[in-house]
Design goal:
Order of helices and strands: HHH
Helix content: 55-70%
Shape: elongated
Radius of gyration: 30 Å
Distance between the termini: 89 Å
Number of strands: 0
């Protein structure tokens, strides 16, 4: 038995299509009902808010002083 015979034997066994195995593609639900770009903007705004509040807290407790 040669390699070609083995290859042909296995090629004949696959008589189904990918659609039969995997089915129709299903859309993923969006996280929080937002698109990826909207989630990126929200994450950036939350980061910016955190930086501003942290800087304000440092100024209030006197750990950082504004240059005069």
């Amino acid at each position: 038995m040669s390699l070609d015979d083995i290859r042909n034997q296995f090629d004949d066994d696959f008589d189904f299509s990918e659609e039969e195995v995997w089915g129709e593609p299903v859309a993923k639900p969006e996280l929080f009902g937002m698109t990826p770009v909207q989630r990126l903007v929200l994450a950036f705004l939350l980061f910016l808010t955190t930086v501003i509040i942290s800087a304000f807290c440092l100024l209030v407790v006197g750990k950082v002083a504004l240059p005069t």
